[in-house]
Amino acid sequence: PYLYYEMGVKTDSNSLVNLIKGDYTLGVRDKFDCLFEKKVSISEPNKFMVNTPLEINIFYSETAELTFSSNYPDSDIVSIKWTNSKGEILGNDFDLKYNPNLSDVVNVEVTTINGCIATSKVKINVDNELKFYIPNIFSPNGDGINDKLEIFKNKIPLTLGQISIFDRYVVTWCTILRIMNSTIPLMGGMAL
């Protein structure tokens, strides 16, 4: 049987728990009354921290690609939980692809093998402003450059009921009915 000492005071246990940072003298006495002492320093562990960008700006229908960094190795991380502002779980991996229709705040909660928990949040700003892109020039001459007229709404192809194209003298060049994907291949003044 052994007797255990902490700072010269006998303890009833062979393990010490809940020690705060500091210097300690630990001792073990055997049945022959021989004492072995060891000085031990306990330092404060690094505070577990998780970092994400503060904000990400995306356009409507774009996907936000989220990730985090931490001051602990990935091998020490046992749990990851991404949630939106409603508390709905979005994912549980190191990376998250999120496609919100409206601006939102995404939280990440990360837990280590030692039970340390750190959180961070990122605001996702979704630009819902309606933006049309209509090129002001195209040249349907078959050379492979600017031969197609592409019209987009927030980077999403449009479905158009009708489009008319005029030359610089305001003469109708062509009229096309029911365009489904906004890419209009043109060749020599005619829709293909």
Brief digest:
With 192 residues, the chain is mainly β.
Radius of gyration from the CA trace?
33 Å
Q: Which sequence of strands runs across the widest sheet?
A: 6-13-12-9-10
Shape label: rod-shaped
Distance between the termini: 95 Å
Tell me what portion of residues adopts beta-strand conformation: over 45%
Mean pLDDT level: 82
Q: Helical segment tally?
A: 0
In N-to-C order, the SSE pattern is EEEEEEEEEEEEEEEEEEEEE
Low-confidence stretches: 187-192
Q: Percent of residues in helical segments?
A: under 10%
What report would you give on this structure?
With 192 residues, the chain is mainly beta. The protein is 0% helix and 53% strand. It has no helices and 21 strands. It has strands at 3-6, 9-11, 22-29, 35-42, 50-51, 55-59, 64-67, 69-70, 77-83, 89-91, 95-98, 104-112, 117-127, 132-133, 148-150, 152-153, 156-157, 160-166, 172-179, 183-187, 190-191. The strands form seven sheets. Strands 6-13-12-9-10 form a five-stranded mixed sheet, with no helix packed on it. A hairpin with a 5-residue loop joins strand 18 and strand 19. Residues 187-192 have low confidence and may be disordered.
